[in-house]
Amino acid sequence: MANLTQIIVSAPGKLMLLGEHAVVYNRPSLVTAVDQRLTLKAETLENSVFELNAKDAGVTNYSKPLSELGKGDIPKGAKFVERAMYNFFARHPQSNRGSINNIDSRLRGNDIIGIRITTKSDFSPLFGFGSSSASTVCTLKALSELFNAKLSCRQIFELSFQTVLDVQGTGSGFDVAAATYGGTLYYSKAGSKTIKPLNLKHLPLIIGYSGIKADTVTLVKQVAEKAKKYPNVIENIYSQIGYLVDLAKKALLKEDYQTLGELMDLNQGLLVSLGVEGKKLADMIYAAREAGAYGAKLSGAGIGDCMIAIAPANKVSGVKKAITKAGGKVVNVKVNAPGVRIEK
Ligand code: PMV
After folding, report:
1. What is the CATH number of the domain that holds 221?
2. Cβ atoms within 10 A of the Cβ of 250, count?
3. Does 208 sit in the ligand 1 pocket, CB within 6 Å?
4. Residues 249-301: pLDDT tens digits?
């Protein structure tokens, strides 16, 4: 029997510091967790149904029999939670009504009790802070607790990453790593994957939202097309981005923000070469630099979502004003926030 009937967990949003796009091709990246969180409540139900309320993702009163889990027309805002649940039950035969190992027969045979999930986010899904990855990680953490599966951070990360790949077919997993582990991470999916927490005391990052939605999957595909046409050039760009990440890691640990800023500018130049700059982001980035930032770059897939800047303390307010004047919205969040955790 499951011991718990309800649990509340939360996971942070994320921001890519350096390394986007190249990280998909096994180069390292630097990512940080933001202190705005997605909260998820999971409750067990007597009937074998899956219910989801995720207003921030545009899903209200979504309900289906567990036997239909992962099947049929799934609304966009339900895909990650539903797939995470399917993957959990497929791999972890804990349930309160027996333990048939085949997931489909277990779902058909009412072998698993029903689950109602409700999510609520501190941040707008428009920012690109990673509501899909945070809700995936929260779902797996909550199910692990409800069914006493004792998943480790690493297992939650691996199953969440698999879920993201199942749903969107592509991705480096950096967002899932940030939601799971929190803090600021040196992350690479190469080989057995590197997830190295960096011990930072603080990181005075300035974040500007462009008001434009970035379509990550489409942009990753666009860059892949470019790589098909110019394989050597693009592979070299990925490698250069990887070198910048290694240098930026050292600068971050030394709190050498001037060097970090220079490296951010260099990374931005390479992202421009990949074709993901975007006019609005470029305006905000130039505005930040002209107002005295050490450096600025886009964060994430590009074209839209957010840009980040780092500046000397006496220039921060001027940089924020310049970003606003360029048409951006300054998002006041702290970074280096804790990873997935139980709230109640
Ligand atoms: O758009 P975001 O914030 O999800 O970042 C995408 C970063 C990419 O490197 C382009 C894709 C990935 O999965 O790493």
Report:
1. 3.30.70.890
2. 12
3. no
4. 999 999 999 999 999 999 999 999 999 999 999 999 999 999 999 999 999 99
